[in-house]
Amino acid sequence: MSTKIYAPSGIKVTVLSIHDEGEYFMVRSDTSGKVFFAHKDQVQELVDTPEQDSDEIPTRNRRNRRKVTAAKKEPIVVKPQVPTDNRVNLNNLTAEGLTQVLPGVGIKTAKEIIELRQGLPGERFSKLDQLKAVKRIDWDEVFSTGEVYVE
């Protein structure tokens, strides 16, 4: 099982199994737990920085004192990690929330996005491409940040 991104909606998914000689994956959404099939072209690798392992457990001598070990010669490089909780689901936001999350969006455009969402089946976006009906926003720039998704 590996964590990947489902491209049409931008959600993180876990691959459960591979079918039809690698053409399709059975995946589970990491946020909702929903299980579905996705084509291999719709599933992309998640670029994740590995967490640093803690140092070795110090060994102890007979008197329960720590043994002195030589310091490591390699410098430890700390890589900044992107927080995982900064992504927002556009189906859950109000008009005011959209103005705060999306760059350059005012209340009028936010209300237009809400009206578009309410006109869809189930009153929810199912793909990020559905948002491209609102022309005032550079959606390619918004989607490239990876901060928004729909589910």
Q: Would you kindly provide a brief summary of this structure?
A:
The chain has 151 residues and is an alpha+beta fold. The chain contains 3 helices and 7 strands. A 5-stranded antiparallel β-sheet has the order 4-3-2-1-5, with no helix packed on it.
Can you tell me about this structure?
The longest helix is centred in the C-terminal third of the chain and has 12 residues, at 107-118. α1 packs across α2 (107-118). The chain has a 5-stranded antiparallel beta sheet with strand order 4-3-2-1-5, with no helix packed on it. The two termini are 21 Å apart. It contains 3 helices and 7 strands; from the N terminus they run ββββββαααβ. It has 151 residues and is α+β, with helices and mostly antiparallel strands.
Give descriptors for this structure.
151 residues; alpha+beta; two-stranded parallel ribbon; 3 helices; 7 strands
Query: Approximately how much helix is present in the residues?
Result: 10-25%
β-strand percent reads 15-25%
Largest sheet: 5 strands, antiparallel
How do the strands of the widest beta sheet line up side by side? Answer: 4-3-2-1-5
Global Rg: 22 Å
* Termini gap: 21 Å
Let me know the average pLDDT. 80
Oligomer: single chain
Based on helices, strands and strand pairing, what is the structural class?
alpha+beta
Count of individual beta strands:
7
Shape: extended
Secondary-structure element sequence? EEEEEEHHHE
Helical stretch tally: 3
Low-confidence region ranges: none
